[in-house]
Write a structure and sequence with these properties.
The complex is a heterodimer of chains A (318) and B (324). Chain A has 318 residues and is an alpha/beta fold. Chain A contains 14 helices and 12 strands. In chain A, helix 5 packs across helix 7. The longest helix of chain A has 18 residues. Chain A is globular, with a radius of gyration of 21 Å. The relative contact order of chain B is 0.14. Classes of the chains: A alpha/beta (318), B alpha/beta (324).
């Protein structure tokens, strides 16, 4: 691993309810280096938000670990970690206290972490870094007094004021209007490029990934099923799930739509064998039988395998 | 012509202020055709959808005409309007996942719409119609016995579509029908709507903020900004060569995967959405427009015919330049 800053190793997170166990994250390996944007994509219920919450130390893993700059995440390192790894939430209206001014919202992190130095100067620097200029004009305004795009900038400024090394952004633009989205994405990409941050973007939007991500990890039912460079994955997807996902996105170049039947899969009942096989187009069109892999698809679990070009895929057909 | 909307204007009046939501919208829709309406939140697209059926609250002051089959919806007595709702035009509302009654079965709720319009239909006829409608949206007929919470989001959306089709409408208005759904489920619903449209010769108005979705669904697209249509035309040519700078910015916000010019260059529009209470005299888009000129600040351009069945409201549009 080149000096990766944030990594997870064989991470498993489970939730139990009565006698049932939901395997929300079921063995994930992922690392995010400084200066790169990794997009984690998948349908809702695939475990992407649970993975992010665990990386923030908000959920305890069943097994496996989260490592930051090489050292595992534990209770003692948590305070330092929570300063270095910041989260950007989906809905800026929900993430900001409506009764706090923008200054208070951004300064709160500094106070929680008892950061020394001139508070006003630090808040002003964070706001202008995030495109809210001149910052003094925003100090005494309340969240409802600014537009949705500006609110999201405030949320990002509140994360940036602590000078983090890593940002985890959960659907950072999903609640914003189309015309504003690009500006926020541009800001996030610039922060990564100018300050050498690493960033994990959780999204269901493949067009967004194409816009800002260096690498993409496609998640299905608690596992990463395909990971590699953004170009490679979006232009030459290998895993049947990635192919299907890409074919239904209106932003993708016209290819034949493969609409998967059935609903989003259920982490309470993960199928045996390849977890995608009940919905897999290769199983349904007989291609798996022709390749002689159908039995393995039904019976043998499969992990990620290197397929060249830096791409790793979990599929028996490859 | 199935539907003609003429100079539709909606203003929300409160004690303190009057907020214009729709400012003089006109368009036509032929039977079986589909029109997509796109724009950002607050542009008036949902208000316009609800205005077609006189569904707005009394604080909304409406003027203009909505003519369905040569009959003005706003001149009808209430009894006639009731017949037009569901049977002439039906609407699938935004936030549809919450618009089912949680304590009634799916079958009961669909039957309610049918019985309202066919008082003398017998119980078993209503039941078989409910089953037929559920099958039409690819749900098993036995779903009629289920309560909404027993269904997934995609299935509930199908139920709402079935309900909207209960009285064989000629026009279906779908307001953000897939917004809360996952990409794969969204594709399933879009496929269903396409299929129903061609099978039932249904006209459709599709309201969404997701411009990329409209290209697959609609024959024509209208882009709204600040309560007005700023560009209208066939979906293919509008999306590949938008004439109005706002339409261009909106189209660029949805990158084409595989197109390397959009790689790593997210495209957005600076500035804030317009404040409807303070629009001024000029083009409402002028404060954010990359091509703004002095003339734009004082002159609000109407929709100009630019050939190829296209119209745009911008001073930079000349028929010769767009006729490529």
């Amino acid at each position: 691993m080149k000096n990766s800053t944030l990594s997870v190793e064989d991470l498993k997170v489970q939730f139990s309810r009565r006698r049932e166990v939901a395997r929300a994250v079921d063995g994930v390996n992922l690392d995010i280096a400084a200066g790169e944007v990794v997009a984690l994509v998948g349908e809702s219920g695939c475990g992407k938000t649970t993975l992010a919450r665990t990386m923030m130390g908000l959920e305890m893993p069943k097994s496996g670990e989260v490592r930051f700059n090489g050292s595992p995440l534990g209770r003692r390192a948590m305070r330092e970690y929570r300063r270095k790894v910041q989260m950007v939430f989906q809905d800026p209206s929900g993430a900001l206290n409506p009764r706090d001014t923008i200054y208070e919202a951004v300064a709160e992190g500094l106070r929680v972490h008892k950061v020394a130095g001139d508070e006003v100067a630090q808040v002003a620097a964070a706001l202008s870094k995030c495109g809210l200029r001149p910052p003094e004009r925003f100090f005494n305004r309340y969240p409802h007094e600014v537009s949705g795009g500006q609110r999201q900038r405030v949320v990002i400024a509140a994360a940036m004021v602590l000078e983090p090394q890593m940002l985890i952004a959960d659907e950072p633009v999903a609640s914003l209007d189309a015309s504003v989205r690009g500006e926020i994405l541009k800001l996030l990409r610039d922060l990564v490029d100018q300050h050498g941050l690493g960033m994990l973007v959780i999204t269901h939007d493949l067009g967004l990934a194409w816009n800002i991500a260096d690498r993409i990890a496609v998640m299905y039912l608690g596992r990463i099923v395909e990971i590699g460079s953004c170009e490679e994955i979006l232009e030459h997807p290998k895993h049947p799930y990635t192919q299907a996902l890409l074919s239904v996105v209106p932003e993708s170049k016209r290819m034949e739509q493969q609409i998967l039947t059935g609903e989003t899969p259920d982490p309470l009942h993960i199928p045996k064998g390849c977890r995608f096989h009940p919905r897999c187009p290769l199983m349904q069109n007989g291609e798996a039988d022709r390749l002689g892999i159908a039995d393995r698809c039904r019976g043998a679990d499969i992990g990620l395998r290197d397929v060249g070009q830096g791409t790793r895929v979990a599929c028996h057909a490859i | 012509m199935l539907l003609s909307v003429r100079d539709l204007t909606v203003t929300y009046v409160t004690q303190a202020s009057a907020v214009p939501a729709v400012r003089g919208v006109s368009f036509d829709l032929e039977s079986g055709a589909s029109l997509g309406i796109a724009g950002e939140s607050g542009c008036g697209k949902s208000t316009m959808g609800a205005a077609m059926l006189r569904l707005l609250p009394s604080s909304a002051h409406v003027s203009g005409e909505v003519i369905l089959n040569r009959e003005d919806v706003y001149a009808m007595p209430f009894s006639r309007l009731r017949a037009v709702r569901w049977a002439g035009i039906s609407i699938v509302m935004q936030g549809a996942l919450h618009s089912l009654n949680p304590v009634r079965t799916i079958g009961w709720q669909i039957a309610e719409a049918i019985e309202l319009h066919n008082h003398d239909l017998r119980d078993h006829a209503v039941r078989s119609r409910v089953g037929e409608l559920l099958e039409m949206v690819s749900l098993p007929a036995k779903c009629a016995k289920d309560f909404p919470h027993q269904l997934s989001g995609g299935q509930r959306q199908r139920v709402l579509i079935a309900m909207a089709l209960a009285c064989n409408p000629q026009l279906l208005i779908a307001d953000e029908p897939t917004t809360a759904l996952d990409v794969m489920v969204q594709a399933q619903i879009i496929e269903l709507l396409q299929d129903l449209r061609s099978r039932l010769n249904l006209a459709m108005i599709f309201i969404t903020h997701d411009l990329s979705l409209l290209s697959t669904v609609c024959d024509r697209i209208a882009i709204m900004y600040a309560g007005r249509i700023v560009e209208e035309g066939p979906s293919g040519s509008l999306l590949s060569g938008p004439a109005h700078p706002y339409a261009a910015a909106l189209a660029a916000a949805f990158p084409t995967i595989g197109d390397h010019s959009s790689r790593m260059t997210p495209s957005g529009l600076g500035g804030d959405p317009p404040d409807p209470t303070d629009l001024g005299n000029g083009c409402p888009f002028a404060p954010r427009c990359p091509r703004v000129e002095e003339l734009c600040l004082g002159y609000d351009v109407p929709l100009i015919d630019i050939g190829d069945q296209r119209k745009a409201a911008c001073i930079h549009v000349e028929p010769s330049r767009v006729a490529l």
